[in-house]
Amino acid sequence: MKKLYILILSLLLTLSFVGCNTDSLSEYKKAVEKTEEVTKGQSSGEFNVLMEFNTHGMSSEEIRKLNYFKETKGSFNISFDDEAEKAIFKYYLNFGGLGFDFDMYINGDEIFMKLPILGKYMNINEVQNSTNSEQDIDVEQELISSESIENITEKWLGLMKKDDVFKGKDIIITTPDGEVKTKEYNIKLNDEQIKTLVVDVLDILSKDIKLKQFYEESIKNNAEVLDEKTYEEIFSSIKENINKFKVDSFNYTAFVDIDGYIINEIFEMNLSVVNPENEGLVSADYKLELNNWDLNKEQNFNFPIFNDDNTLNINDMEDMDDMESNMPFIIEDMFKNNN
Amino acid sequence: MKIISVIIKDLKIILSDKKALAIIILMPMILTTILSFALKGSFMSSDEFNIEAVNIAVVKLYDENEDSQMFDNILNSSFFSYENLPTDDEFNPETIFFEDFLNSKEVKKIITYSIEKESEALKLLDNGEVSAVVLLPNKFIYDMNINFLTPFRNKVDIKILTHPDRSINGQIVKSVFESYSNAMSSSIIGKNILIETALSNDIGNESFDNISDIMEDMNNVMKSININIDNVVVEGRKHITSAEYYAVAMMTMFILFAAGQGGRMLLEEKDNQTYQRMIIAGTSKLGLLSGKLITIFLIAIFQITVMITFSHFALKVQWGESSAIMLISLSAAFAVAGLGSFIGAATYKAGNYKMANIFENIIIQGMALLGGSFFPIDVMPEFMQKFSFLSLNGIALKAYLKVVTGYGISDVINYIFVLVITGILFSTLAVLVLREKGGNTDAQYNKIENIKA
């Protein structure tokens, strides 16, 4: 009798396991949602954009100049604590064959930026308040609103079907937290899916008030080349040109740790131009690798001591013209030369 | 007098046992000799370090002319507006790398290089003809010029491929190149500070007049690269050689076998029916135990004396302050004797040799591993290092090594104290185990049974 019970029980268990087919997509979605909820931790990343140009009919001088912009590289390291409203961003960007570092420090309402080359700090609030003295501006940390980020995440997750997500094998990866056992999730999307996502993202961003405000105040005012274009025009021109490109491949790999957090992500995308003879650009390869660690752990922030010697004040900013004459390069020239 | 008779009898038995003698006297001598020669390299100081230079292949993945042309173009673009930069003769990253760095007196002693094409270099690495391949990346010259002559910072990733069968040589190459990287970084930081300071004082262009001076200092920076593959040695203390280390390590490990030998003595007396005879003759149990303790102590002292003498004359081991060595030896031998008498009492109580066998085959090996008798505990995982205090030979080893490196009695008194306390503790435990009801009455009033081991 006992044996019969055991036999029935094991049969039921076997059937329940057969019915429980693991759904990689929902597992991945859970990991994304859980990682989104992280309020403090550290992230780092490296990206690389490699562009191929159609040099037909160009002079050797033009080709050489174009080669400076074939590769754009960058990296960043972020420590953040959203609850305490503290963050330190350290960026490195190599563009046009020239690399430079710039840092951002957020401590409550204070936002400081360490300027490349000058090595001095700039109080972002002070500068924005002075350039927009007539308007009452509530300066906040977010460049893009949290609603927009949520919507983008939603679009990203809604884009995928079950067949798009493959669960790979368990992999041990080395992180600053040590050796971590992870599950690999691989996502491959086609041209149509990516374009749908890009259009959706552009729609979300074009309606983002915070980003629009940042563009109007910080970019448009400081880059003459963009002066003629409105915020909405920029997004609509990108949308118009989207079909000139074809997504040759899109690979995304996420590594999820035992606690269900995404601790490593690798994006790889290859684009090519549909009619390269009509365009300067032939193809672009994009790679981004992100790492997350120290998640939801207490962070130590070592903020620099800002004083008159190391920080630009409003008067310094007004004397910027004098400074530019003594600087070995002018950032604005970069925009002029590149367009 | 009865105790002395017991000691003399036991010593005669042990010293007439060739197998036991081989284990406690001959084995440590043989192992010390083999290990001290085999692992000589691991304990060498830089003064003795006289290996052949490591062969490497350097691959240039850049085009010097293209890089120079690219840099000139950047300078002539509107990004820059200064004209006082050093010429190629004044600053040349290739000259700095090959002439000032790889051909410097210090580096030449350690590394010899040849410039190869990538495919050829990889072949040489596969064949084991070079120990490492150094890949100087694309745009190396351009990026280095940007780093040293402009306010910008371009990352330069020099890749080093090493052969898995030559990990030590690979480590040497990596260490040497780390020195180069550090020297470069400190120069770039210096240049950045100069520019930042100049710009903040509104003398931007004038700062570039001084770039040439910074570049002149580069040669001095490269010369200052000191390739140091030595351990840090405290002033007045000498470096430990492999012979010194393993003479101490083997000696402290093999004196534990004396405790193992002693651990069998009491039960052997009982099995041979000599124990009952001695009890009937009026020898107390405590007297018997004291006899065993002194026997083990003397055997350990004998082992230590033989090992110190042998290593001093055959392997040129300098043991340091003799009074400190004598004190450590006496306390270590006492601790071992205490442990041996406890094992003996427990074995006797159990009525079989399991306890003594476990001690000899498992506990001694464990103690030897944790105490650093097989290899220095520094190379063990951190969690294992924490358990080294459990090892009796480990405590003795640390004390001996301190004296060998030049420390005196005052520096090892704590270790001596711990060894003596350990000896007292185990001796007391041995007495308590034997005192338990049963042992004496069995011998005096019970019928003798013949028990075979």
Task: Tell me the layout of helices and strands.
The complex is a heterodimer of chains A (339) and B (453).
Chain A: H1 2-19, H2 24-36, E1 40-53, H3 60-67, E2 71-81, E3 86-95, E4 98-107, E5 110-114, E6 121-123, H4 124-131, H5 146-159, E7 165-175, E8 178-188, H6 191-206, H7 209-220, H8 231-241, E9 245-257, E10 262-273, E11 281-293, E12 311-312, H9 314-318, H10 320-326, H11 331-338
Chain B: H1 2-16, H2 18-38, E1 54-60, H3 64-76, H4 93-102, H5 105-110, E2 111-116, H6 118-127, E3 132-136, H7 140-149, E4 159-162, H8 167-200, H9 204-207, H10 211-223, H11 242-271, H12 274-280, H13 285-314, H14 322-350, H15 354-371, H16 382-385, H17 392-404, H18 409-435, H19 439-445
Parallel strand pairs in B: 1-2, 1-3
Antiparallel strand pairs in B: 3-4
Beta-strand portion of chain B reads under 5%
Q: Secondary-structure element order of chain A, as H and E?
A: HHEHEEEEEHHEEHHHEEEEHHH
Q: What's the Cα radius of gyration of chain A?
A: 24 Å
Task: State the strand order across the main sheet of chain A.
Answer: 7-8-9-10-11-1-2-3-4-5-6-12
Number of helices of chain B: 19
Compute the number of strand runs of chain B.
4
Query: What structural class do helix, strand and pairing data of chain A support?
Result: alpha+beta
**Average pLDDT reading of chain B:** 78
The description of the largest β-sheet of chain B is: 4 strands, mixed
Shape of chain B: elongated
Q: Give the CA-based shape of chain A.
A: globular
Low confidence ranges of chain A: 1-21, 133-140, 321-339
- Summarize the helix and strand pattern of chain B as letters: HHEHHHEHEHEHHHHHHHHHHHH
How many β strands of chain A by DSSP?
Answer: 12
- Fraction of helical residues of chain B: 55-70%
- Beta-strand percentage range of chain A: 25-35%
Compute the number of helices of chain A. 11
Largest interface: A-B, 27 and 30 residues
Mean pLDDT of chain A: 78
Q: What radius of gyration of chain B results from the CA coordinates?
A: 34 Å
List the quaternary state of the chains.
Answer: heterodimer
